[in-house]
């Protein structure tokens, strides 16, 4: 065998040697890999209604009418049990409206599709409760007197916390700020919220800025730690405002309403 191979011309010999590698690459290109493909998802105005249901309902305190919008943003990703091939990942890698992410970064809880969906809905429910606590704490309102109901059950995860808190603050009249937060603008954003009003990072912000611009936003509130990520595919005409807390976000929006500069990434 060796002597026969040695008599082959060099191009033929290389082709023979490359055949197993080519076959391996072909298999790899079609084999499922542990990555998810994400894209900009829907947004929802927390000051308005979704699917005919008011997102934020408040009783026990005066509320005000608002003209602007506060839009929470999402990403859509391939399901936890779906698999992308190498060929698909390579194609998506070069698209600005798609992102290739490790599956565990999108679905950190693991488990079956049903278990992950249940986990994400539980995280959203916790986020809504925490957002209410943060907003009422910021406004120094007694939670036993002011009742807040949040209805956005079909979106999973905790990343709408900041926007929920801002929506509650904006709807409650008499917060001492002199009018609605948005100033009639469409403001979008993302970020988790803690009971004391701290804003946390969420991931997928570059895709969320695209969703925000698509749905009419001119201002995007982003966790300060994710400014660099948000700038990577920033749509033209969308102002990035970094925040680390609920009070940061409120103060920045108040500044914009007064015609003053707000912090920028």
TrEMBL record:
Signal peptide feature range: 1-28
Domain of life: Bacteria
InterPro entries for the chain: Lon_proteolytic, Ribosomal_Su5_D2-typ_SF, Ribsml_uS5_D2-typ_fold_subgr
Gene3D superfamilies: 3.30.230.10
Matches recorded under Pfam families: Lon_C
The protein's Enzyme Commission number: 3.4.21.53
Top EC class of this enzyme: hydrolase
Active site: 159, 208
Limits of the Lon proteolytic domain: 154-256
Keywords carried by this UniProt record: Hydrolase, Protease, Serine protease, Signal
Catalytic activity: Hydrolysis of proteins in presence of ATP
SUPFAM superfamilies xrefs: Ribosomal protein S5 domain 2-like (SSF54211)
Entry's family note: Belongs to the peptidase S16 family.
Protein name, entry field: endopeptidase La
Lineage of the species this protein comes from: Bacteria, Bacillati, Actinomycetota, Actinomycetes, Kitasatosporales
């Amino acid at each position: 065998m060796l002597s026969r191979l040695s008599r082959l011309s060099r191009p033929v010999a290389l082709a023979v040697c490359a055949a197993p590698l080519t076959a391996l690459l072909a298999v790899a290109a079609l084999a499922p890999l542990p990555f998810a493909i994400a894209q900009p998802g829907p947004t929802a105005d927390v000051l308005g209604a979704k699917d005919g249901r008011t997102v934020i309902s408040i009783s026990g305190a005066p509320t005000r009418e608002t003209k602007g919008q506060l839009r929470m943003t999402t990403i859509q990703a391939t399901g936890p049990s779906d698999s992308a091939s190498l060929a698909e990942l390579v194609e998506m890698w070069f698209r600005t409206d798609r992102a290739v992410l490790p599956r565990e970064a999108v679905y950190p809880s693991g488990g079956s599709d049903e278990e992950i969906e249940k986990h994400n809905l539980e995280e959203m429910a916790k986020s809504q409760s925490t957002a209410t606590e943060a907003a009422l704490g910021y406004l120094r309102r007694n939670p036993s007197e002011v009742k807040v109901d949040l209805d956005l059950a079909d979106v999973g995860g905790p990343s709408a916390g900041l926007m929920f808190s801002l929506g509650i603050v904006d709807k409650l009249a008499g917060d001492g700020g002199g009018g609605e937060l948005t100033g009639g603008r469409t403001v979008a954003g993302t970020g988790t919220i803690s009971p004391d009003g701290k804003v946390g990072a969420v991931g997928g912000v570059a895709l969320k800025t695209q969703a925000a611009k698509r749905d009419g936003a001119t201002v995007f509130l982003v966790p300060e730690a994710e400014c660099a990520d948000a700038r990577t595919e920033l749509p033209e005409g969308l102002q990035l405002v970094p925040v680390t807390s609920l009070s940061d976000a409120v103060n920045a929006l108040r500044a914009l309403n007064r015609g003053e500069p707000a912090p920028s990434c």
